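Quick sanity check, LuxR family transcriptional regulator:
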Amino acid sequence: MRVVIAEDNVLLSAGLELILGTKDIEVAAVVTDGPGLLDAAARHRPDALIVDVRLPPSFRDEGIRAALAVRRAHPGLPVLVLSQYVERVYAHELLADGSGGVGYLLKDRVSRVGEFVDALHRVARGGTVMDPEVVDQLMTGTGRNAAVHAAVDALTPREREVLTLMARGLGNREIGERLVITDNAVHKHIGNIFAKLGLPVDDRGHRRVLAVLTYLDSRG
């Protein structure tokens, strides 16, 4: 796998290079701002991007804006975003096109090397990975979107557990192992989630991503 890193903190970017190098992941380029990310993505054609939400010059949302611009220029290019804090709007924007291949992790997760590398591989394969802390905060959020909250409220406690683990990027087998239920039970719960959220019957719409996006909408 080849990646491009957009991170202005030299210590963090160097640490990422070291970690990824030990896992046979090549860092094609390290850039420090949005324009650099756009150029590096076009020049190196990486398998995935690792992007800090906040980059120079204003350190507000340049990273996420650049990542979204890259996704428009190179549809489907996997992006793993790193953030210091839980920022709900950015998590939502990443998922908005429904195509998968996106992740949102807190920077603290980088120190948990196994989890971080696993998340990167999931995203590179087209999966969706949300940091457990992001999901936990969304689960306890109080805001609601009236257009979708009824559908989400219709989920059973077990279906909410399954949806939470889907948001964290777990597959059916891993969800079953985590909840100690059979594969058939997981499949049934996911089917119920899709039906209650009114998602399409085929997979072309990436229903797992859409399910998570619908949940985020309900908490916004």
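Posting the structure with no commentary besides this: The domain at 2-132 is CATH 3.40.50.2300 (Rossmann fold).
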